[in-house]
Amino acid sequence: MPLWPFTHRRHDPNDAQQLMHTLLAMAWVVEARDPYTGGHLWRVSRLAETLARRAGLGERDIARIAVGGFLHDLGKVGIPDAILRKPDRLTDDEFDIIRTHPAIGARLLAGHPLAALAVDAVLSHHERPDGKGYPAALGADDIPRDARIIGICDAFDAMTSTRPYRKGMPIETALNIIRENLGAQFDTRFGEHFLNLADTGVLEHIAGHADDGIPLLDCMMCGPTLVARREQTTGDTLFCPQCSGEYRLATGPKGQLEARQTGRVASAADLAPVADSALIERFLNGAARSAWASGIIDG
Ligand SMILES: [Fe+2]
Predict the structure, then answer these.
(1) Which of 40, 75, 96, 272 is disulfide-compatible with 104, CB 3.0–4.6 A?
(2) How far is CA 85 from the centre of its chain?
(3) In what order do the strands lie in the sheet with 237-239?
(4) CA of 283 to the centre of ligand 1 (A)
(5) DSSP characters over 106-132
(6) CATH class of the domain defined by 13-214+273-298
(7) Which residues contact 154 (CB under 8 A, 6 or more apart)?
(8) pLDDT grade for 76, boundaries at 50, 70 and 90
(9) What was the pLDDT predicted at 27?
(10) CA–CA dist 252, 215 (Å, integer)
(11) What is the pTM of this model?
């Protein structure tokens, strides 16, 4: 089945890039609405790409999985703010609503020309090998490969990220939980590859970061929640998505960027969600993904 349904301009690689950009920007809106997951999409994408490479998959598969990692929570765009932005643990009823996000995402994707590339990641990233996942409670052999990879990376990032009601776990603790749940919550083959990534030191460069070489910065009230964009520099302002406190970037004693509280609180306009187009552009221009987008068009 051809993945490229347009008959006009079918050999223009820019079309695929632009379509992909719209999808990634849509995913970014979800991230921007959720104050507790700054950098989550970048981290899951980077982890999934790294894991797929470690497992020996081909470049085309790796590129698709990186995109799937970025898009996996697309369906959260349909989850009400009262639940998405709730600072406490969710009730069972609220969890039932959260559990609708994979199907919402798949429906959103359905009309998109590139849907076939990301639908496994979007629809099945919360399935589990023991059949206790959602939305379809698939058995181990029926969970698509992309979803098995992204499910591990998504859970690792959730465990190591700080939330209002709990601090993020150390990497080692999260790895132990993955080890103990191989074959139950996590795919055994890809889970073992993920555990082996610990020896390479790569996890330290992804956990707690929002981009390559850009660590999350500390809000004095909320912990590591501040996301600085690559192009931001000393004197620029940013806001804590959780407490709305304003911070100004400054150069620390070792030359590193740090965030200093100004005492001001953000206005609604300051907190309006804006996609990081520069990051999306860099993501799309990664060598593997450009080649892969062209490959979609070539067949
Ligand atoms: Fe999800």
Answers:
(1) 75
(2) 17
(3) 237-239, 245-251, 257-265
(4) 21
(5) HHHHHTSTTHHHHHHHHHHTT--TTS-
(6) mainly alpha
(7) 44, 72, 125
(8) very high
(9) 86
(10) 14
(11) 0.88
Reading the block at residue 125, the tokens are 């990233």
For the record, the structure tokens of 137 come out as 């409670």
**pLDDT at residue 167 is higher than 80:** yes
The mean pLDDT of 47-57, rounded to a whole number, is 96
CA of 254 to the centre of ligand 1 (A): 37
Give the C-alpha separation, 218 to 247, whole Å: 10
List, as one string, the DSSP characters of 126-183.
Answer: T--TTS--SSS---GGGS-HHHHHHHHHHHHHHHHS-BTTBPPPPHHHHHHHHHHTBT
* CA gap 27, 30 in Å, rounded: 5
pLDDT tier for residue 269 given thresholds of 50, 70 and 90: confident
Domain boundary assignment for the chain? 13-214+273-298
Instruction: Kindly indicate the confidence band of residue 197, based on its pLDDT and cuts at 50, 70 and 90.
Output: very high
What type of residue is 248? R
Residue-wise pLDDT tens digits, 3-40:
444 444 455 656 777 888 888 888 888 887 777 778 89
The environment of the single-atom ion ligand 1, i.e. residues with CB closer than 5 A, is 73
Predicted pLDDT at 289: 65
Stretch (H or E) spanning 101: helix 101-110
Say whether 247 sits in a helix, a strand or coil: strand
Distance 124 CA to ligand 1 centre (A): 9
Gap between the Cα atoms of 67 and 155, Å rounded? 17
